[in-house]
């Protein structure tokens, strides 16, 4: 019978081999998976982990750091104002920034601690407010406004394509907008896009950061 370590090692190796020509930052999304899986993956060489829930991210990151293991933690869930201090206490990067009021509070908290954080502006292709993100017309003014916050290092754009949009079409739109954004903001050229079902398409369209969960860890038993 295959052990959990052997299973994770094989899955991680398969993904790493597939993405190797692109050299992306691979973020293993560990939402709902146990700490033991994160420990194994960290031992196998993975050091970027993504979480959608701040309390879960805090607990796992503290446990891994207590073991003196190298790790970087990415928050990719919806940002709630009341959770910002907690998120900043463990996350090294935020992928879901889409509200300048949140940016202002993030900057205020970080200024108090003389620290900084990396961040992506979240793009929405369809304007669905329930899924978060800024539409194109709001994206560039938001990036301009973020320039005044010295504690926030804007890496680029993050996008999750609408579920009812054909992936190739969605990523073509993302790539086109990303190219224009990179030209306007040359210090923010990264693109966080692509998950377990579409990360190779995302890489073909310029993704620099991919967020992969079930392809490495297996299907979740619960959400």
Automatic annotation (TrEMBL):
<dbReference type="InterPro" id="IPR029066">
    <property type="entry name" value="PLP-binding_barrel"/>
</dbReference>
<feature type="domain" description="Alanine racemase N-terminal">
    <location>
        <begin position="6"/>
        <end position="219"/>
    </location>
</feature>
<dbReference type="Pfam" id="PF01168">
    <property type="entry name" value="Ala_racemase_N"/>
</dbReference>
<dbReference type="InterPro" id="IPR011078">
    <property type="entry name" value="PyrdxlP_homeostasis"/>
</dbReference>
<dbReference type="InterPro" id="IPR001608">
    <property type="entry name" value="Ala_racemase_N"/>
</dbReference>
<protein>
    <submittedName>
        <fullName>Unannotated protein</fullName>
    </submittedName>
</protein>
<dbReference type="GO" id="GO:0030170">
    <property type="term" value="F:pyridoxal phosphate binding"/>
</dbReference>
<keyword id="KW-0663">Pyridoxal phosphate</keyword>
């Amino acid at each position: 019978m295959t052990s959990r370590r052997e299973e994770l090692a094989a899955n991680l190796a398969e993904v790493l081999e597939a993405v190797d020509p692109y050299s992306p930052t691979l973020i293993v999304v560990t939402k709902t998976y146990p700490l033991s899986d994160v420990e194994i993956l960290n031992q196998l060489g993975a050091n970027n982990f993504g979480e959608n829930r701040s309390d879960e991210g805090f607990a796992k990151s503290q446990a891994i750091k207590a073991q003196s293991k190298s790790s970087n933690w990415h928050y990719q869930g919806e940002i709630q104002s009341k959770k910002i201090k907690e998120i900043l206490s463990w996350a090294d990067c935020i992928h879901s920034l889409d509200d300048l009021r949140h940016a202002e509070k993030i900057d205020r908290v970080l200024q108090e601690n003389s620290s900084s954080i990396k961040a992506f502006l979240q793009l929405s292709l369809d304007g669905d407010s329930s899924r978060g993100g800024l539409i194109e017309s709001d994206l560039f003014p938001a990036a301009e406004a973020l320039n005044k916050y010295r504690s926030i290092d804007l890496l680029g754009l993050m996008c999750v394509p609408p579920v009812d949009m054909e992936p190739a079409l969605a990523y073509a739109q993302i790539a086109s907008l990303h190219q224009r954004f990179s030209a306007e903001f040359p210090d923010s050229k990264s693109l966080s896009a692509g998950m377990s079902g579409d990360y190779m398409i995302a890489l073909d369209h310029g993704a620099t950061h991919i967020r992969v969960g079930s392809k490495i860890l297996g299907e979740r038993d619960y959400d």
